[in-house]
């Protein structure tokens, strides 16, 4: 049901992992007015430029309107029959490991849940992975190693009470603006707040920093290992906490001390001033309420998981976890990366925070879904999945709400993989995406404001997205499309959903399946298990665990009770050390001496299919660029606005040069947004590094080795 004119309807922003609540009103001309939801605990009525412009981006321009097979328009029944038949045939001939789903943090939790249920529960393969692999999987791996489960311990309220905030690997000001504004307000109001930004670039986030550590790329583990050694040396650890509640301290410390040298040597290796390093360590040592916020600069690395654990180690050593104003805090990139992690959208998780290899969980899920075909081993992670497709092992793929040709690294290889795959099905809102060009079957999906369901933000808060407007053509909800294919594959009863509320309630019930010891899991939605029907439609933002249905805003932290989800119930230190081979790619440096970093700009989102429709947002930065330090530009005769070619052995891009001392010498930065559709020559994924973190499988998108020349 769409909403009536004049009423203000609560929903959630389409973009980043802050998960801001919005209110939308349909105007007389059918367009949307948008304002912040003052009652939403993520943003209290505030919205950034992208959120405020949501009404300007609701357009039918460029939308995929009808299903098609080989370019010929088809009815829904014909298209769904075709997809189901072709997947079934492929599985019959080549087995369940020959098919795959590649999904997205843009999906709603209900969509994600049915996709995971179909692939892992009924097709019997683990081959469903998500573009969240590119975004947060190193944090997931780090959380699981330390806490025994993928749990973000804190809540946004910690931003208001921390006395030291470390922002590392994140341009919070542009990528998570409402959290940045929240912190900025605190900085203006409190003299006792010390903010450190750790970033090779001098970004807008540095405007609120007391200290900016522009460390050399990929030296984060060394920085935090040095901190752990410093804390021990200066007797600033919480020995009682370590002894009573943790394991692995001695080996983590030994590893850290192996990497730690004198402050002078350490500062030199990190590429920063010794006094600054000393100041950072001393402030951490002496400030109890310390919060470490981190994002893609930490995760998108060949040693992303180790970076995450090097941060967590320092918080465990000081007992600063699960208490107000302190803890490690991973900020997610996409609106529902967290919801996807919850249901099991990553190929190496079974479902609802239950893992492969846990026999009791396997049996419980099999019983719950009433299937005897539940996958028994992890599937392929994103980069490996497309490699397997390239090698001819994946023979049918369904890509849902994502555009891997312009978001996965090494685009040319992704294109070759899709060309080799006998069946490529793409569900999307947009007609002419770079990936749609290689699809055999196109299925039109509803977009933000047309679909209804839930998302989970960075502080584990589940909020409703609501349907506001009718969808164009015959576009359908992703959960409906997936369920209809599942029914046609012979799984009618398991996918016979009437509406998304039924799916959410089933998912909530799944989170109540017991642990081996009969205790509740971290992801416990028992309070939401009665929500089908009207209860679901009235769901207010709730932070998990939801042990009872809350009517008031509740801020919850994990691990205040010092009980973790590891077998011993103790938190785990992880021994991590500098891996010289992973600090920079092993590929030859002489041909490609520059390190290319990439990321978001303030007013655009991913491939700009939505934000690109707003001229107001487009006015911020109008064209793609590569930022270069003047000292690197002068010998190459590169001047401001010159066209330059950035290239390596994977590909090249042609963009304008932006000369700035905010960029460190030897390093370049380019936005991720422009691509084959919006600026053919400027797709950074053409040359992005596809080396991955061995544990998380996350590609090292921020350290591609390239050279640059004037065009
Ligand atoms: Fe939307 Fe993120 Fe901006 Fe909030 S901070 S309005 S969720 S883009």
Q: Give the tally of β-strands.
A: 26
The end-to-end span amounts to 54 Å
3D shape: globular
Radius of gyration in whole Å, from Cα?
A: 24 Å
DSSP summary: helix tally: 24
Biggest sheet, in brief?
7 strands, mixed
Mean pLDDT: 93
Strand order in space, largest sheet: 5-4-16-15-14-6-7
Task: Estimate what percentage of residues fall within beta strands.
Answer: 15-25%
CATH topology of the largest domain: Rossmann fold
Family: Belongs to the prokaryotic molybdopterin-containing oxidoreductase family. NasA/NapA/NarB subfamily.
Domain 4Fe-4S Mo/W bis-MGD-type: 6-62
Cofactor: [4Fe-4S] cluster; Mo-bis(molybdopterin guanine dinucleotide)
Protein name: Molybdopterin-dependent oxidoreductase
Label this structure with key terms.
711 residues; alpha/beta; Phosphorylase Kinase, domain 1; Rossmann fold; Dimethylsulfoxide Reductase, domain 2; seven-stranded mixed beta sheet; six-stranded mixed β-barrel; 24 helices; 30% helix; globular; binds iron/sulfur cluster; molybdenum; metal-binding; nitrate assimilation
Description:
The protein is α/β, with parallel strands linked by helices and 711 residues long. The chain has four domains: 8-57, Phosphorylase Kinase, domain 1 (2-Layer Sandwich); 68-133 and 342-451 and 468-500, 3-Layer(aba) Sandwich (Rossmann fold), CATH 3.40.50.740; 137-331, Dimethylsulfoxide Reductase, domain 2 (3-Layer(aba) Sandwich), CATH 3.40.228; 589-710, Beta Barrel (Barwin-like endoglucanases), CATH 2.40.40.20. Helix content is 30%, strand content 16%. The chain has a seven-stranded mixed β-sheet, with helices on one face. The chain is globular. The model has no long low-confidence stretch (mean pLDDT 93). Bound molecules: iron/sulfur cluster (SF4). Iron/sulfur cluster binds at residues 13, 15-16, 18-20, 43, 47-48, 50-51, 176-178. Iron/sulfur cluster (SF4) binds at residues 13, 15-16, 18-20, 43, 47-48, 50-51, 176-178.
């Amino acid at each position: 049901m769409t909403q009536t004119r004049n009423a203000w309807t609560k929903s959630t922003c389409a973009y980043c992992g802050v998960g801001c609540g919005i209110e939308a009103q349909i105007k007389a001309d059918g367009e949307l007015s948008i304002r912040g939801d003052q009652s939403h605990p993520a943003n209290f009525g505030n919205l950034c430029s992208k959120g405020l412009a949501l009404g300007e981006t609701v357009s039918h321009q460029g939308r995929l309107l009808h299903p098609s097979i080989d370019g010929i328009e088809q009815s829904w029944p014909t298209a769904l029959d075709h997809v189901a038949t072709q997947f079934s045939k492929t599985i019959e001939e080549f087995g369940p490991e020959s098919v795959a789903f590649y999904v997205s943090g843009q999906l709603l939790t209900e969509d994600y849940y049915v996709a995971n249920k179909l692939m892992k529960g009924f097709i019997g393969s683990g081959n469903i992975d998500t573009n969240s692999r590119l975004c947060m999987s190193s944090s997931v791996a780090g959380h699981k190693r330390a806490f025994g489960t993928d749990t973000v311990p804190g809540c946004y309220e910690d931003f208001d009470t921390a006395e030291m905030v470390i922002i590392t690997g994140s341009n919070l000001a542009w990528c998570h603006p409402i959290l940045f504004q929240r912190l900025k307000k605190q900085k203006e109001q409190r003299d006792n707040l010390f903010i450190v930004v750790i970033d090779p670039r001098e970004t807008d986030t540095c405007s609120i920093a007391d200290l900016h550590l522009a460390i050399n790329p990929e030296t984060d583990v060394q920085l935090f290992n040095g901190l752990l050694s410093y804390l021990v040396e200066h007797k600033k650890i919480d020995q009682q906490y370590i002894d009573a509640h943790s394991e692995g301290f001695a080996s983590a410390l030994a590893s850290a001390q192996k990497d730690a040298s004198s402050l002078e040597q350490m500062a030199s290796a990190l590429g920063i001033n010794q006094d600054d390093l000393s100041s950072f360590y001393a402030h951490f040592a002496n400030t109890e309420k310390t919060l470490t916020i981190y994002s893609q600069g930490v995760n998108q690395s060949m040693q992303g998981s180790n970076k995450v654990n090097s941060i967590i180690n320092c918080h465990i050593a000081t007992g600063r976890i699960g208490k107000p104003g302190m803890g490690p805090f991973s900020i997610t990139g996409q609106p529902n990366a967290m919801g996807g992690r919850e249901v099991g959208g990553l190929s190496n998780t079974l479902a609802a925070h239950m893992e492969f290899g846990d026999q009791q969980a396997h049996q419980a899920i099999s019983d719950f879904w009433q299937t005897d075909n539940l996958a028994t081993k992890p599937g392929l992670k994103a980069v490996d999945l497309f490699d397997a497709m390239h090698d001819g092992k994946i023979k049918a793929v369904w890509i849902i709400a994502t555009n891997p040709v312009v978001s996965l690294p090494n685009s040319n290889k992704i294109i070759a993989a899709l060309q080799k795959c006998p069946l490529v099905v793409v569900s999307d809102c947009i007609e002419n995406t770079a990936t749609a060009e290689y699809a055999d079957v196109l299925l039109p999906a509803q977009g933000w404001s047309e679909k209804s369901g839930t998302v989970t933000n960075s502080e584990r808060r589940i909020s409703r997205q609501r349907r506001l407007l009718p969808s164009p053509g015959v576009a359908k909800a992703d959960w409906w499309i997936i369920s209809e294919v599942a029914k046609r594959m012979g799984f009618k009863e398991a996918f016979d959903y009437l509406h998304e509320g039924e799916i959410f309630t089933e998912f909530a019930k799944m989170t109540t399946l017991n642990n081996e010891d009969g205790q509740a899991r971290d992801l416990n939605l028992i309070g939401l298990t009665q929500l089908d029907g009207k209860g679901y439609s009235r769901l207010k933002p709730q932070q998990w665990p939801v042990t009872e249905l809350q009517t008031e805003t509740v801020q919850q932290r994990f691990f205040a009770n010092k009980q973790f989800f590891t077998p011993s119930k103790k938190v785990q230190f992880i021994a991590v050390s500098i891996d010289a081979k992973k600090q920079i790619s092993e590929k030859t440096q002489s041909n490609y001496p520059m390190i290319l970093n990439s990321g978001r700009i303030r007013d655009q989102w991913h491939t700009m299919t939505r934000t690109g429709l707003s001229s107001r947002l487009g006015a911020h930065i109008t064209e793609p660029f590569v930022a270069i330090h003047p000292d690197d530009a002068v010998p190459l005769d590169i001047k401001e606005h010159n066209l330059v070619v950035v290239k390596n052995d994977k590909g090249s891009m042609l963009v304008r040069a932006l000369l700035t001392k905010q960029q460190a010498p030897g390093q370049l930065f380019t936005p991720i947004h422009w691509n084959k559709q919006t600026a053919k020559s400027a797709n950074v994924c053409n040359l992005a590094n596809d080396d991955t973190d061995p544990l998380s499988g996350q590609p090292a998108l921020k350290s591609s080795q390239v050279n640059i020349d004037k065009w």
